[in-house]
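Thread: "does anyone have the structure for this chain?"

Original post by V.I.:
We have the sequence but no experimental structure in hand. Need at least a predicted one for the grant figures.
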Amino acid sequence: MIVLFFTLLLAAIAVGLSFLALRRGKATLSKGFADARGQFMHLLPRLTIGILGSGFIAHLMPKETVLAWFGPNSGITGTALATLAGTLTPGGPVVGYALGAAALKAGADFAQVIAYVTAWSLLTFNRMLTWELPSMPGKLIVLRAIVSLPLPFVAAWVAQVLR
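Reply from O.Q.:
Generated one for you, tokens below.
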């Protein structure tokens, strides 16, 4: 139900932005649709591959391994492995969240999945190399990574406390 609400909210925002663009002129509306179409065509192949891949991963993850490495009894080692996996996972939300959901289905503990998603959100090497390094000083990126490193562990601990 909440997903439907936010989907409708995003649709309403898009419609509102379309009307604002139209008020500025038909050319602005046309350019907005052209930009949206270009972004859609750029993302469509990636989304398709990510969705297909995540669907297969959910069924190919060995449940015994997931339980042993990321299950409720995996402790700090499971959190560390989940953090490492998050830093090594390339791709956008279709990949990161799909892997987290697949791990949950295979028996991973909430805390380890939270550590994984937090690390993937903050510490992905791929994003650092592809996006951050070309636009920011290396020293800043290293400092940001060091400051962010404890956060997956803190998030996993808070998840354990709140359960």
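V.I.: this helps a lot. The radius of gyration is 20 Å.
O.Q.: and The chain is about 85% helix and 0% strand.
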